[in-house]
Design a protein that fits this description.
Structural class: alpha/beta
Distance between the termini: 33 Å
Number of domains: 2
CATH superfamily of the largest domain: HUPs
Number of helices: 20
Strand order of the largest sheet: 6-3-2-10-11
Strand content: 5-15%
Largest sheet: 5 strands, parallel
Radius of gyration: 30 Å
Number of strands: 13
């Protein structure tokens, strides 16, 4: 079962097909190369057909991208890819033209510490960050072999995830995808998850020749690209390229140091945007909040290439909320949006309050002592026998109150412990390591709990509003069988 709600206010509706895609085509050779690459990844047939369709005269593309992440990256990567598929479908419906979702794998990035990690929500709802034993040496991720540690990593992931009937299918993508390097491994996983929905996965190397005019512009007019970019958070370097030397990217001192051969050059952040828009008939560029700012900076530079800048399409944001988390928030009386925004602060002081119960017991004890004192005094006026009976009753009643207090304190310790554990699980799910869920947690734990069909259901949610922020409530978790839990414990 799956239900969802939108956490943000709807925006201004659909964007029109960008003029940037009008009258521009992909060469049959490039389309064939991209289709062949999808086959090499083991992509489902819809991805191959989508790549081939890029050569059709009316075809357009919706592009998004991300640097490779271990085992498919965090949830935000999946959200970007789903958003590209949803935006492409919407534009295709509006225009009657084939619109292909394209995912640009930034495999020439060299930030290994950022790429070499996967965040898992374990069977015990704890957050584990796993890494391959690789040392950063400046090589591009497309040059980094995951090595034999990949198998050990997959075994460790299997040990940490719940042993459900979905586990094998959840791990099929990471196990089957090619592992020539970190970029290929990531691309293969993503293709297995979403190639069936027509997602075409690409690398920078596929477009070096198709986008060579970006390089030619910088060589002919040094500094023109940087000068054309607007002010903003991104510092556009001169020249905005790297030379590729021995699998590493080296920043040249000037445009005169740039080789004429486009296969010997790598784009930086600014020129990567220009390259994708020069190589493909881009109808829209799906971006996250931080990308939005620097992509706007690069928009003026498109005029240097006689390219209209395609519209920037915000990606969807997804919060996956399991039943246990929803129930805990209800017990604490905390709204989901508050828990997302404030994290631990939102849960502080919520749940069982032992001080209030202790005050109630203290009040009961004081009231009983006053009442019993009055009974004892009246009994003493009657005779000694009744007084002794009253004193005995008083002792029994107060002992019962004291026993109740002891029981209450032990119960309070249990409940407090349970509430603390509930709060810990809520934070592990929604604010792992103090960060938003989508930036830390991999989709794998959720696929293991709820099945790989979850990807399809999430796409249905995103299609409702490709730029929306959704809470997706998950139920019907496939729990580990008791026999499997016992075998794991031993």
């Amino acid at each position: 079962m799956l239900r969802h709600e939108r956490l943000d206010s709807p925006g201004g509706g659909a964007r029109p097909l960008a003029a940037a895609a009008e009258g521009r085509t992909v060469s049959p050779e490039l389309a064939a190369e991209l289709a062949a690459y999808q086959r090499s990844l083991g992509a489902p047939p819809p991805a191959v057909r989508a790549a081939e369709s890029l050569a059709r005269p009316a075809a357009a593309a919706v592009v998004t991208g991300q640097q490779p992440g271990l085992l498919g990256g965090p949830l935000l990567t999946l959200a970007k890819a789903l958003s590209a598929i949803a935006w492409a479908g919407r534009l295709a419906e509006e225009t009657g033209r084939p619109v292909v979702p394209v995912f640009w794998v930034a495999s020439e990035d060299h930030d290994l510490p950022e790429a070499n990690r996967v965040g898992l929500l374990t069977a015990g709802d704890r957050v584990e960050i796993l890494r391959l034993e690789l040392e950063p040496d400046g090589r591009m991720l497309s040059e980094v072999d995951p090595g034999p540690g990949a198998e050990e990593l997959l075994r460790r992931v299997e040990d940490l995830l719940p042993r459900t009937s979905f586990l094998e299918a959840a791990l099929e993508g990471p196990r089957a995808a090619p592992r020539a390097n970190l970029g290929e491994w990531f691309a293969g996983i993503l293709s297995r998850w979403l190639g069936g929905k027509g997602l075409v996965v690409v690398h920078p190397r596929h477009f070096r020749r198709a986008a060579r005019r970006v390089l030619e512009l910088e060589r002919a007019r040094p500094g023109a690209i940087a000068a054309a970019c607007a002010e903003g958070p991104l510092t556009v370097r001169e020249p905005p390229f790297f030379r590729i030397e021995g699998g590493r990217r080296v920043r040249p001192r000037s445009a005169s140091d740039l080789p004429a051969d486009p296969t010997a050059v790598s784009w930086d952040v600014a020129t990567r945007v220009l390259a994708q828009n020069a190589a493909l008939p881009v109808a829209g560029h799906v971006v996250g909040p931080s990308e939005l700012a620097y992509c706007r900076q690069v928009e003026p530079a498109h005029a240097l290439l006689d390219l209209p800048a395609p519209p920037l399409l915000p990606r969807a944001r997804l919060w996956l909320v399991e039943g246990k988390v929803e129930r805990a928030l209800a017990r604490f009386g905390v709204d989901l949006s508050e828990a997302i925004e404030k994290g631990e602060e939102a849960l502080a002081g919520r749940g069982f309050e032992p001080e209030e119960f202790d005050r109630a017991l203290s009040g009961l004890e004081a009231a009983m002592e006053r009442a019993l004192r009055g009974v004892r005094e009246e009994a003493g006026r009657v005779d000694e026998v009744l007084l002794r009976k009253a004193e005995g009753a008083e002792r029994e009643i107060l002992r019962a109150v004291h026993r109740l207090r002891d029981h209450a304190r032990r119960a309070a310790d249990r409940v407090l412990g349970t509430d603390r554990e509930r709060a810990r699980k809520v934070l592990a799910h929604l604010r792992p390591r103090g960060a938003p869920q989508e930036r830390v947690l991999s989709p794998l734990p959720f696929l293991a709990r709820h099945g790989t069909g979850l990807v399809k259901r999430l796409l249905e949610v995103v299609r409702e509003a490709p730029d929306g922020c959704f809470a997706v409530y998950l139920s019907g978790e496939d729990r580990p069988r008791a026999s499997e839990e016992r075998s794991r414990a031993t």
